[in-house]
Design brief:
Rossmann fold, alpha/beta, five-stranded parallel sheet, 21 helices, 3 domains, five-stranded antiparallel sheet, 40% helix, GMP Synthetase, Chain A, domain 3
């Protein structure tokens, strides 16, 4: 089904010209209720709405004191911290434009964004990020470098200061009056932010989103999602430089929800069990890791426990499937579910804190098997599809009557259609204004008012969208068969022994793959089966390990067409990394780089 999804009805958006005005309203509304929380050195730090409003005003004064003009860019280079959001909304308060830099970016990548955006002030979260920005303070274009953490060594640099000093340095009624004047001049067409796409090729592009984009997105989510409000608890886990986490954080502020900031993503499992969030956005890899860990533990469980686990999940699927489709639950099934929930399913929910109402999820393909598994446990993954250029969400699941493997219906206010070449086209107020300082690229992605996503897909008979692949990623074998690598990678990559996988097929006789094992699980397997090894290189070359992967890949390939199946593969001893340019900060494969770096290994797989 390739028809357009229909013309959406106009949305009613909040009657404010600027998102900072919404935050100011919520400061007055929620007062002493908690707004932002984080944990540092084992201690919880909490900022209530009054404190948020006060620090936001102080930071806005500081920006004015440093000469930040209306429309000027303000860079934030930091892991997730409450200070990021305070600096962000402070910039919006004076009609400036916050621009985030991925915390893992190199000095060169950060420099590109600073220079391209024209920012003169940057907020740094750690010593590493401060040092990467220091050269730009010495040589330009930065004139101010603010360190969020007082433990950071300022290196005696002129123009460098601590966040605490930045907040205290500027006072006076004249500055407050200027903030009010700027807000009075604000319009919804003002720039809200530049989101720099991580990009799998070339330099990142600065996506221009306006306040209107965000306000329409918020209104659309109000109509689509389960109701949320001040009683909810959110966890800020993905980088704030990612459009998904960024727009979600804005939505959390808009709804008056307390947001918990995780500075070190490696601590997510401990943090989630301590925070016990009710809502939290994440990418599919988060669920894949939990699922793989569960399957790994299950493999070493007794036959009785394995049987109990599979029975409970099957009961959960049946019962929650009926609830999803708004069908009555028979008494016998309800009783079996109560037992399954007490013995198994509630323990699965406890892994993510035990209070999750729903998980917004997007950013990559999510395997149907994984989505169905979490749903069986009573965890609703609100799976969707979006891009930086569309203020994140284009489509997402409704709370009921959705299908696993699909990415939902268009968000209210968003229009979607499928082009003749199967490309997904999007139109609406949430679509970007264009790429900053790049009219040529902007023109290339718009056609008759429609944004060309670069993704292919189709509408199913229930009105939900199915994503096929990226147009530029589609591969054609030498036999003329088109291959969607992301689909194959999502199908095979859910295996508990696979950490990363890159499919190869373009102009080749058959499909092959470069595979990075999940070494913790694989090492345990080797020890349990008496396989001796002294290095990762020895482990991946061992015939029994290669045989293990052959068997598991063959099993997972059953749902693939014959021409999609992986015929040969190479196990790699080291993962693809951001530092080596093999993946983007959002963990997407840079296929061109990978194909060049591993050309010998790839060619060897096709040697007769």
């Amino acid at each position: 089904m390739n028809a357009a999804a229909g013309i959406p009805a106009p949305l009613t958006i909040p009657d404010v010209p600027n998102f900072a005005a919404i935050v100011r309203q919520n400061v007055r509304k929620f007062g002493a209720k908690p707004a932002l929380r984080t944990r540092r050195q084992g201690q919880w730090i909490e900022i209530d709405w009054n404190g948020l409003g006060e620090q936001m005003q102080q930071a806005a004064r500081g920006l004015l004191d440093r000469g930040v003009a209306e429309g000027e860019m303000v860079c934030i280079f930091s892991p997730n911290k409450p200070e990021c959001t305070i600096a962000d909304v402070a910039a919006l308060s004076i009609r400036a434009v916050p621009v985030y830099i991925y915390p893992t970016n190199t000095a060169r990548q950060a420099e590109y964004i600073v220079k391209h955006s024209g920012a003169r002030i940057l907020f740094a979260g750690t010593q590493e990020q401060f040092d990467k920005a220091a050269a730009m303070l010495k040589e330009g274009p930065l004139h101010t470098l603010v360190a969020f953490d007082d433990a950071i060594d300022l290196r005696g640099l002129e123009g460098a200061m601590y966040w605490s000093a930045f907040l205290d340095r500027a006072k006076g009624a004249d500055l407050d009056a200027e903030i009010d004047r700027r807000l009075a001049r604000a319009t919804v067409d003002d720039l809200l932010t530049l989101i720099y796409t991580s990009g799998t090729t070339g330099e990142p592009k600065g996506v221009m989103l306006t306040h209107a984009s965000l306000l329409h997105s918020a209104a659309g989510h109000d109509l689509r999602l389960l109701p949320v409000g001040p009683d909810d608890v959110s966890l800020c886990f993905l980088p704030l430089s990612h459009v998904f986490e960024r727009t979600w954080t804005y939505y959390v502020l808009y709804k008056g929800i307390v947001n918990n900031y995780l500075e070190d993503p490696k601590q997510i499992i401990d943090f989630i069990q301590e925070v016990k969030p009710t809502i939290m956005c994440a990418v599919p890899r988060f669920y894949e890791k939990i699922y793989a860990a569960m399957m790994h533990r299950l493999e070493s469980a007794s036959p009785v426990k394995q049987k109990l686990f599979h029975w409970a999940v099957a009961v959960g699927r049946e019962r929650n499937g009926r609830v999803k489709d708004e069908l009555p639950v028979p008494f016998g099934l309800a009783m079996r579910y109560r037992l399954a929930d007490r013995l198994v399913l509630s323990k699965l929910r406890a892994l993510v804190g035990g209070r999750i109402r729903f998980f917004p999820c997007a950013g990559a393909p999510l395997g149907e098997e994984i989505e169905a598994f979490f749903h069986a446990a009573g965890l609703f993954i609100c799976y969707g599809y979006g891009l930086s250029e569309t203020t994140a969400t284009v489509t997402c699941h409704e709370p009921t009557h959705y299908r696993f493997g699909l990415v939902g219906k268009p968000l209210p206010g968003v229009e979607v259609k499928i082009a003749e070449n199967d490309e997904i086209l999007v139109r609406g107020a949430t679509v970007m204004k264009g790429y900053y300082k790049n009219p040529q690229e902007t023109a290339a992605v718009f056609e008759d008012g429609w944004f060309k996503t670069g993704d292919t897909g189709c509408f199913e008979d229930n009105g939900e969208l199915r994503i096929t692949d990226r147009i530029k990623d589609l591969m054609k074998t030498s036999g003329g068969k088109y291959i969607a690598p992301q689909y194959i990678e999502a199908t095979i990559g859910t295996d508990l022994y696979i950490e990363q996988i890159a499919v190869v097929a373009d102009n080749r006789k058959f499909v092959s793959a470069l595979i990075v094992p999940e070494f913790e699980a694989l090492s345990e397997y080797a020890r349990n089966h008496g396989i001796a090894f002294s290095s990762r290189e020895e482990l991946v070359a061992h015939p029994e390990i290669v045989g293990l992967f052959e068997k598991r890949i063959q099993e997972r390939s059953r749902e693939l067409a014959n021409y999609e199946r992986i015929i040969r593969f190479t196990l790699l001893a080291e993962p693809f990394t951001i530092d080596r340019g093999e993946i983007t900060p959002t963990m997407k494969l840079k296929r061109k780089v990978i194909n060049e770096k591993f050309s010998q290994a790839i060619d060897a797989m096709y040697d007769e």
